[in-house]
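Translate structure to sequence.
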C-alpha cells in the first residue's frame, strides 16, 4: 500500500514535470553550459595578451627583441604607435593591456656591448592578467639577455658586456600593487546591476501572471507602458542603491580609487541598467512561472559572469569564447566602469564600448517592450 501511494505521487510529479517541458529542457542545458564555461573560460593561464609596440629604434636588434616576445606566445603586438600619447590611449580604452617601449639608442648600445634598457608597461586594472604579464615580460627579457651574451661569446670568445646587456624596466599602471580588490569591486557593480534588474524584474511580472492578478491590472485604466514602468521603477532605485552601496564600501573599506567622474559613472550605469531591465522584461514575456524565470535568468547571468571578464581575464579564454564575449553587454560595462574608476578615463577613451552598450540597450528594450504589449493583448 505504501509503495502504491508513493508511486502515485511520483507519477503525478513526473506528469506535471513533463508538462513543463521548457523548464526540463533548460535544466538539462544548464549543467552542460556550466561545464563548458568552467572547463574553458575558468582559467588564469593568460596567453596572447593584446600589446602595443612603441619602437623608437627600428634596428635589427629591436626586431630581434620583438621576435623574442612574440615567440613566447604571451603577447600579441596588434598595435604600433609613434608616441606615448597614442600608447596611453590604447591602454586606457582597454584595447591593449601592455606596451613595449624600445628607446632610440637600443640597437647602438647592444652593438657596442653596453647595457640597454627597454620599458614594459602593464595595465594593472586586471590584477590577475597584470601579474602574469609582469612575470612573462621579465623572464622573456632575461632569456633574450642570456641569448645576447651567448652570441657575444661565440663571436668574440668572451662577453663584451660586464653586466646583463638587456634590462627590462616594468611599470604597472593604475594598480601598481596589483590589489585584487581594485579589479573585483568595479566588476561587482556590474554583476549586481545585471542580477537585480534581470531576476527581480522578470520575477515581479511573472508573479502577477502566476497569481492571476495581471488580469486585474489590465482591466484598470492603466496603459500598458504605465503598468510596465510602474512595475520596474522600484527595482531601478534598488539596483542603483546597491551599486552605490558597493561603490562606497569599496572606496572606504577596500580603498578602491575613484579617479574618474562620478557623474559619468552614474550615466553609464543607467545605460547598462536599461539593458538589464530589457532582458528581465523579455524573460517575463517568455517564462510562465517564477521558477522558469529564475532558470532563464541564470542562463543569461552565468555566461555573462564567466565571459565578460568579471572573474577571469578574457585574454586567457579560447578564441571562440573571446569572440562570444562580444555578445555580453556586461563586457562593455566592465571596461567602462574600470576605465572610469581605476584609469580616470573620459568617455572618449571607450566611445566604442559606449556605442555597443547603447545598441544593446535600445535593441533589447525595443524587443522586450514589443513582446510585453503582445502578452497583454
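Result:
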Amino acid at each position: 500500500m505504501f509503495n502504491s501511494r508513493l508511486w502515485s505521487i511520483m507519477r503525478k510529479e513526473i506528469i506535471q514535470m513533463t508538462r513543463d517541458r521548457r523548464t526540463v529542457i533548460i535544466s538539462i542545458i544548464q549543467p552542460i553550459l556550466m561545464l563548458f564555461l568552467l572547463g574553458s573560460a575558468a582559467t588564469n593561464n593568460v596567453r596572447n595578451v593584446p600589446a602595443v609596440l612603441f619602437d623608437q629604434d627600428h634596428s635589427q636588434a629591436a626586431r630581434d627583441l620583438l621576435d623574442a616576445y612574440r615567440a613566447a606566445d604571451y603577447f600579441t603586438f596588434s598595435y604600433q604607435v609613434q608616441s606615448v600619447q597614442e600608447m596611453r590611449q590604447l591602454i586606457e580604452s582597454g584595447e591593449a593591456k601592455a606596451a613595449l617601449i624600445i628607446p632610440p639608442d637600443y640597437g647602438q648600445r647592444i652593438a657596442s656591448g653596453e647595457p640597454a634598457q627597454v620599458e614594459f608597461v602593464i595595465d594593472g586594472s586586471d590584477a590577475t592578467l597584470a601579474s602574469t604579464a609582469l612575470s612573462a615580460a621579465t623572464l622573456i627579457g632575461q632569456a633574450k639577455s642570456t641569448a645576447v651574451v651567448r652570441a657575444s661569446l661565440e663571436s668574440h670568445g668572451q662577453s663584451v658586456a660586464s653586466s646583463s646587456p638587456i634590462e627590462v624596466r616594468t611599470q604597472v599602471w593604475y594598480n601598481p600593487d596589483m590589489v585584487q580588490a581594485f579589479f573585483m569591486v568595479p566588476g561587482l557593480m556590474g554583476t549586481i546591476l545585471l542580477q537585480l534588474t534581470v531576476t527581480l524584474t522578470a520575477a515581479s511580472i511573472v508573479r502577477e501572471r502566476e497569481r492571476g492578478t495581471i488580469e486585474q491590472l489590465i482591466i484598470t485604466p492603466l496603459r500598458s507602458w504605465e503598468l510596465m514602468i510602474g512595475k520596474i521603477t522600484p527595482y531601478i532605485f534598488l539596483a542603483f542603491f546597491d551599486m552605490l552601496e558597493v561603490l562606497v564600501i569599496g572606496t572606504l573599506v577596500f580603498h578602491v580609487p575613484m579617479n574618474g567622474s562620478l557623474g559619468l559613472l552614474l550615466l553609464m550605469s543607467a545605460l547598462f541598467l536599461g539593458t538589464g531591465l530589457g532582458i528581465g522584461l523579455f524573460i517575463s514575456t517568455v517564462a510562465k512561472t517564477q521558477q522558469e524565470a529564475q532558470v532563464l535568468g541564470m542562463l543569461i547571468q552565468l555566461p555573462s559572469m564567466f565571459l565578460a571578464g568579471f572573474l577571469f581575464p578574457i585574454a586567457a579564454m579560447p578564441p571562440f569564447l573571446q569572440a562570444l564575449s562580444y555578445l555580453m553587454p556586461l563586457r562593455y560595462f566592465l571596461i567602462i566602469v574600470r576605465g572610469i574608476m581605476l584609469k580616470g578615463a573620459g568617455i572618449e577613451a571607450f566611445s566604442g564600448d559606449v556605442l555597443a552598450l547603447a545598441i544593446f540597450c535600445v535593441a533589447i528594450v525595443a524587443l522586450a517592450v514589443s513582446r510585453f504589449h503582445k502578452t497583454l493583448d
